[in-house]
Every structure is written in C-alpha cells, then in structure tokens.
Amino acid sequence: RTVYVNGDYLPEDEAKVSIFDRAFLMADGVYEVTSVLGGKLIDFAGHARRLERSLNELDIKKPAVFGDLLEIHRELVKVNGIEDGLVYLQITRGAPGDRDFVFPDPETTEPTVVLFTQNKPGLADSPAAKVGMKVISIEDVRWGRRDIKTVQLLYPSMGKMMAKKAGADDAWMVQDGHVTEGTSNNAYIITGNTIVTRALSNDILHGITRAAVLRFAKEAQMQVEERNFTIDEAKKADEAFITSASSFVMPVVEIDGVALGDGTPGARTARLREIYLDESRKAAI
Ligand code: PLP
C-alpha cells in the first residue's frame, strides 16, 4: 500500500516519523476518517471543516498542504485502487528535537501529516447492519474536550475491549447518568417517530455522519430531539442506532443484555441507513 508522509507518497514500510513526534510521546495530534464508496469520498468537506476546527482548538499550526488534502485523498484512493474503504488522516504538532511539555515554536517545528487508506470491500453491505449490534454501558472517564478529534484513544479502545469481553460489540459511555456516545460513534434512540441524541457540546464528538443523519431525518418527517437520555430510557426505546463515518448508520439491538423490541434491527433505523447511503453516494466527490 502507498501512504503519504509529509509531502511524499511512499510504500508503507518506507514511511518514517520521528520518535520525538508529539503524537507518539503525548497524543498531541488530531485525525479524521473519511469513508470511500464507489471510489469516491463521502462528506470530505465536513471532515476538512472539523479538522480545521480541531487544529484551531489545540493551536496546532495549519500545515502548508492543508489546501491540497482533497487531492492527496484522491491520489491515495486511486493508487491503492480503493473502491470501498477509508482514508485515515493524522496531523500532529510535529517533532521538536527533544521531549518537552511546552509546545515547540511553530516557526521551527512543522506539523507531521500522515495519510493512509484502508481497503474495506463491501463496506456499505456489512452483515452487522442486518443483525444489529449489542452494546454495554460503561462510565465515561475521558477528558473534557471530546469535541476535539485527538488521537488520544486509549479509553475508547479499552471500552471496546470491555465490550468484547462481555460478548458485546461496543460500549456506550455514561456520564452523570446520561449516555454521551459510543467508543467511536454517536449514539441515538428512537421512540415512536422521534430520534433522541445528546446535544452538541464539549462532551461528545460533533459527528459528521450525525449532522447528515439529523438533516435527512427531518426531511424524512421524523422528529429530532437533541437532549440527554439515560441508559434506562434507552433500554425502553423502540429502536437504537449509532453513526460514524466507517459504519454509517448501524442498528443497536441490545443494551446491557436487554433486547430492544424483538431484538432485531428497527424499520426506522433501516430507513435512515438507506437514505444516508443513497444521499451520501449522490454527493460523494
Ligand atoms: N464519537 C466518537 C468518540 C468518535 O470517535 C467518532 C468517530 O470516529 C464519532 C463519534 C463519529 O463521528 P463521524 O460521524 O464524524 O465519524
């Protein structure tokens, strides 16, 4: 596979980053994951906007190649022959000559820019969409700026392992009794014709897929309530689902061992997934 590192397209085993890179030592970096369907990028503009915001919030210098990111995404998709898959992009504060808690001078330390593709044939036809996911609830002990998409993913990764050990697929995180989000996705419940999801704040990532799905939901005449909900409310809901760039809209059929409805994916969730995939494919670039 060909990857991109700081201006160069290289075979993956020739790509190098310094051991002093701030992301390696301090998780001082941000990332984006953009999905590819039919060789085209889904919602690239949304991901680029959020990336710019993440960089601003952390005071990481915008790399000189920022304006070329679309072209770099497209080139990697092309050279790696990606029909369905993902493009991973990471920008870090860079690699000063030594380890120091103080941010390096942006005049002398350039951000590190890395991109690679992941080939996922049939990404939109995942069997999980037909079976649905089981989630467990865990305490949300992450830091207070989850709206910034940093590479600090240890707790989400631990959460996914806790779910796996419990025989589930993912974990929904709970803070002060209310669901924040999934380990790598936004969380929703549906009761009647109403979709409920936590409102945007520093507590959750502002999902690009979330924004699109809420827009389409309103067009599909479904009500949207952006508010807190508890795990108990979720267990009594008619349907539940998650959204992310890599899973699109994915049904949740079980929470902490309690089946929702008859334990199979709900019709409204299936409809939302269909609309999301149709509309996103149409707008892909
Ligand atoms: N929430 C968290 C914690 C995530 O890591 C992600 C995606 O990686 C999302 C939500 C979903 O965001 P998006 O739809 O932009 O992929």
UniProtKB/TrEMBL annotation:
<dbReference type="InterPro" id="IPR036038">
    <property type="entry name" value="Aminotransferase-like"/>
</dbReference>
<comment type="similarity">
    <text>Belongs to the class-IV pyridoxal-phosphate-dependent aminotransferase family.</text>
</comment>
<keyword id="KW-0663">Pyridoxal phosphate</keyword>
<keyword id="KW-0032">Aminotransferase</keyword>
<dbReference type="InterPro" id="IPR043132">
    <property type="entry name" value="BCAT-like_C"/>
</dbReference>
<dbReference type="GO" id="GO:0008483">
    <property type="term" value="F:transaminase activity"/>
</dbReference>
<keyword id="KW-0028">Amino-acid biosynthesis</keyword>
<protein>
    <recommendedName>
        <fullName>Probable branched-chain-amino-acid aminotransferase</fullName>
        <ecNumber>2.6.1.42</ecNumber>
    </recommendedName>
</protein>
<comment type="function">
    <text>Acts on leucine, isoleucine and valine.</text>
</comment>
<dbReference type="InterPro" id="IPR043131">
    <property type="entry name" value="BCAT-like_N"/>
</dbReference>
<keyword id="KW-0100">Branched-chain amino acid biosynthesis</keyword>
<comment type="pathway">
    <text>Amino-acid biosynthesis; L-leucine biosynthesis; L-leucine from 3-methyl-2-oxobutanoate: step 4/4.</text>
</comment>
<dbReference type="InterPro" id="IPR050571">
    <property type="entry name" value="Class-IV_PLP-Dep_Aminotrnsfr"/>
</dbReference>
<keyword id="KW-0808">Transferase</keyword>
<dbReference type="InterPro" id="IPR001544">
    <property type="entry name" value="Aminotrans_IV"/>
</dbReference>
<comment type="pathway">
    <text>Amino-acid biosynthesis; L-valine biosynthesis; L-valine from pyruvate: step 4/4.</text>
</comment>
<dbReference type="InterPro" id="IPR018300">
    <property type="entry name" value="Aminotrans_IV_CS"/>
</dbReference>
<dbReference type="Pfam" id="PF01063">
    <property type="entry name" value="Aminotran_4"/>
</dbReference>
